[in-house]
Amino acid sequence: xxxxxxxxxxxxxxxxxxxxxxxxxxxxxxxxxxxxxxxxxxxxxxxxxxxxxxxxxxxxxxxxxxxxxxxxxxxxxxxxxxxxxxxxxxxxxxxxxxxxxxxxxxxxxxxxxxxxxxxxxxxxxxxxxxxxxxxxxxxxxxxxxxxxxxxxxxxxxxxxxxxxxxxxxxxxxxxxxxxxxxxxxxxxxxxxxxxxxxxxxxxxxxxxxxxxxxxxxxxxxxxxxxxxxxxxxxxxxxxxxxxxxxxxxxxxxxxxxxxxxxxxxxxxxxxxxxxxxxxxxxxxxxxxxxxxxxxxxxxxxxxxxxxxxxxxxxxxxxxxxxxxxxxxxxxxxxxxxxxxxxxxxxxxxxxxxxxxxxxxxxxxxxxxxxxxxxxxxxxxxxxxxxxxxxxxxxxxxxxxxxxxxxxxxxxxxxxxxxxxxxxxxxxxxxxxxxxxxxxxxxxxxxxxxxxxxxxxxxxxxxxxxxxxxxxxxxxxxxxxxxxxxxxxxxxxxxxxxxxxxxxxxxxxxxxxxxxxxxxxxxxxxxxxxxxxxxxxxxxxxxxxxxxxxxxxxxxxxxxxxxxxxxxxxxxxxxxxxxxxxxxxxxxxxxxxxxxxxxxxxxxxxxxxxxxxxxxxxxxxxxxxxxxxxxxxxxxxxxxxxxxxxxxxxxxxxxxxxxxxxxxxxxxxxxxxxxxxxxxxxxxxxxxxxxxxxxxxxxxxxxxxxxxxxxxxxxxxxxxxxxxxxxxxxxxxxxxxxxxxxxxxxxxxxxxxxxxxxxxxxxxxxxxxxxxxxxxxxxxxxxxxxxxxxxxxxxxxxxxxxxxxxxxxxxxxxxxxxxxxxxxxxxxxxxxxxxxxxxxxxxxxxxxxxxxxxxxxxxxxxxxxxxxxxxxxxxxxxxxxxxxxxxxxxxxxxxxxxxxxxxxxxxxxxxxxxxxxxxxxxxxxxxxxxxxxxxxxxxxxxxxxxxxxxxxxxxxxxxxxxxxxxxxxxxxxxxxxxxxxxxxxxxxxxxxxxxxxxxxxxxxxxxxxxxxxxxxxxxxxxxxxxxxxxxxxxxxxxxxxxxxxxxxxxxxxxxxxxxxxxxxxxxxxxxxxxxxxxxxxxxxxxxxxxxxxxxxxxxxxxxxxxxxxxxxxxxxxxxxxxxxxxxxxxxxxxxxxxxxxxxxxxxxxxxxxxxxxxxxxxxxxxxxxxxxxxxxxxxxxxxxxxxxxxxxxxxxxxxxxxxxxxxxxxxxxxxxxxxxxxxxxxxxxxxxxxxxxxxxxxxxxxxxxxxxxxxxx
Length: 1256
Description:
Layout: E1 28-29, E2 41-42, H1 89-97, H2 101-111, H3 113-129, H4 140-146, H5 157-167, H6 180-187, H7 191-206, H8 210-241, E3 248-253, E4 256-261, E5 270-274, E6 282-294, H9 296-299, E7 305-306, E8 322-323, E9 328-340, H10 346-354, H11 364-393, H12 408-426, H13 431-448, E10 451-453, H14 457-462, E11 467-471, H15 472-476, E12 482-490, E13 493-500, E14 510-513, H16 519-531, H17 549-564, E15 569-573, E16 576-580, H18 583-594, E17 619-620, E18 628-634, E19 639-640, E20 643-644, E21 651-657, H19 659-662, E22 666-673, E23 676-681, H20 684-699, E24 703-712, H21 714-722, H22 725-732, E25 736-745, H23 752-761, E26 765-769, H24 774-783, E27 794-795, H25 804-811, E28 816-818, H26 822-834, E29 839-843, H27 849-854, E30 857-861, H28 867-872, E31 875-877, H29 882-922, H30 931-942, H31 973-1002, H32 1008-1012, E32 1027-1028, E33 1031-1033, E34 1039-1041, E35 1047-1052, E36 1061-1066, H33 1070-1075, E37 1077-1081, E38 1086-1090, H34 1109-1136, H35 1150-1168, H36 1170-1175, H37 1183-1226, H38 1236-1245, H39 1250-1255
Parallel strand pairs: 11-26, 11-29, 20-23, 22-25, 26-28, 27-28, 29-30, 30-31
Antiparallel strand pairs: 1-2, 3-4, 3-5, 5-9, 6-7, 6-8, 6-9, 10-31, 12-13, 12-25, 13-14, 15-16, 17-18, 18-21, 19-20, 21-24, 22-23, 24-25, 32-35, 33-34, 35-36, 37-38
């Protein structure tokens, strides 16, 4: 409830919002911008008419290098939050301890290059001291030999075991483990935890109250141990965020390739690396095929470095024939010889020299909470000091610990204890830790929804997400790609063949003429596949038949598809078919298996690679930039599975890739001649025919992959063997022969459409970014109802060579981007962030790492994602499902709402308590609670119920409102106006009144002086006080009062309206005591004096503290106030946790209800179990007193419930507007963070935009 949307709020300097808000923005329409039609909008500038789209802002970066979420603001170093009472200090230290070596380097590169350069220099010196050679200057063979390994056989397993024992496991130093003892000792640095001990010592040695003093000392021990337990568990939870993602590597040992856990790598191991792999040790490159590496973690440069295997002079800090731990492979593949592992790698050595030089940091919410704690603490400390001063100057006395008139030290200690107890009750030292606990519990809840949160900052950021940029394949779709159509271009025509069945990865099925395959035929084919027969009703062209040119063409095309997908395997596990490798290549492998081609175990297939093995060293690996791949194979006698490549051809290159990348380089096609397929020129007619069929497949939401051949002569092979990777790619992709094309389907996830609709209702844009061609992307977007208008997908190349303003204008209105490259994702994210959005980005490839790091919420795929992508992400989706992201956003909103509820409750309760304590002192009314009840109340009301808030469900309608602003107030103005301020006034008034009433009902007096007692003659008889004191006159005529009274008379009432029952008390017989007294005249008034001025204290008939009705009455009054406060605050948290009225609301958080019931039962036990009540300075309450106390609580909560009617009316009044706002924001018409007044102005200016309102 306290987090309800407010149209204004204070700016957080770390937020990504514009620092200066503009006036309301409007659209000038050339066509009416309705949501079912194409809209054309131009912007009208000026001071009074400005667009309501996001204003430009300075680009701020969030450094997410630490698992705890370290922040940076421009070029300024992060600063510890202003925290005047120390709240959050230990949490800040824990965040620093959680940094891994890679975190330290990445962070210091941004924070202090001078420190990093110094550490690198020290690491270089240490490398030489360790005796490591300049491996870059040796050949790969010599490097292997130096490590007792060889390129031919690898490292012997026995040698690997010995090395592992000698050098240790290949692990970078993990986050520093926080021991319980260190956390416990750290508690002693917190001055707030010393307050109970200080109060206990004052009670023991100053006020001579051993029992109360021991209770306070026990509270001190309980405080440090409970805080230590909570902070240690929090530290362990934060530490678990930093645990490295488990990895394995392909290692060459004993002459065979095997998978080995990366932690078991040792110097001398030969490791194979491919695009998307993370480099997990320092290596000397042995062989390379277009390998490019991102070394920005070490160099700070974003350019990819192309690696070579040739020896190089050690002139560069990071030679190009070396691979370094912590870097990532972005394209190509290579093998490398491990030369250093773990903390002996360059990253490890540098990080070691950065230890204790890297500051930690807190997330924005944690910093806000620490600031709130500091500000509130400062204010309360001021009030505490004020109350202490008032108590001392007014000579306020505790009836249980009375002071003599001249005992200034006693008065000072009594006043100081009062102030300390008030501070312990109200100072919000638990705010930062409780916030962290709520976020950690939210993280665990998200993990149960198949998402792993690696950086805690992302939990709170999820609630502010305004745009989700999602990959199509595997995220919005199932990722189960299957070939459903094959194009066979031949003799100037394109022959479409349908593949059936197409569900799943079952390699059973066939290839049929698309024009002949009907629904009845499909049912018959399904039945045949189910029976395990191949008696299909139509001719299966996947089976070789003499004279069937379609069959011959398919055999050649599918053989090429199988051989070029050599890294992908089709396996049968427990009856289920799975793909190991690339899913797109998996579709080709399955299609080939349906034609009896491949190397899948358990199937009778023809393996084309046995007769046409891949040529090593000549290959163009796939990359997202090239969008093609190429392998080379021998072609004996110029023949390749029924294709005559020409008499001079000795080899054939198989090229597969995107049609637009290859079609322009195709110069030949196939034609039939003498029962074989021969190469002929590619005519314009053939080109148009292929383009037509390609468009049809794309419009049917099929991904199209073109397959081409290139005949290679002996001379060509000699040139290729000498060329580098770039030149090889240029030669192999020129003058190609079109072999065919595959149309692949990737069905949308069943939950994707509903999840996108949910995002639209919640005010979040969904931007689909795909590598498919525009027609395919548009078709998928329409199927998912991603676009509200029929605008087609835009090519990412349109973002190139444009200014930031032009890019922002494009990005603000486009929801589908096609033919995307990783750099395009970065451009889109940067543009959205410039426009003020909080962006979530999904990715799975190594090249996506930059965009994932840049996004506010980087999201990697757990199934298909590379190690590099996972390492760069904030969240990892274990099921690769888009709906999981939406669930995470919902959980993020719930977590933030719970934090708001806690803060709202804490501030409401604390402010009212402080105000009531202050008011009672100013009115000379006894304070409502004593020292021990104050501590008990703080524990029962302020700690136990809020711990159940993580179980609080998200308020209904919260996912139909726009995302919160990043700088939104934790407590809204509506909550302040209708809840906090009313409760402060109401409870301060009622509790102060109850305090007076409770003392009047238990003692008969309402003023502190009347309860304490005075020395005036006949004060009790005259009704001036409950007790009267005697004393003696000093030589100056000043009356010196005794510390204890000799007579008390209290008036006890069962109900406020009852007649009083007088309880009169004397230490002995009244007449004998009176005979020992006499009237004396002091300077001020007539007083009681002892007839014998030399009478000792022990012989005076004074009432002991335990026998005084004022003391027992004080305990009864405090018990009434204690019960009233506990009931009121337990009902308050129930009221604040729901917008509905308590009397009408069904409890949605059973844990909170149980906590409230438990708290109230605990309160009753403290009061009604006599021995316990005696220890905690309370006493059992008569029924009338109990009902009186509880009635005040119900009156207060009833008034607040009435105030909530106005609060709900205000919320309801703006709810329709906020839902309109959410729909309009999701369509890019208004800012997600626009104020209510701005949105209302926009809606009034454009009443014709009715479709959004109708959806509401």
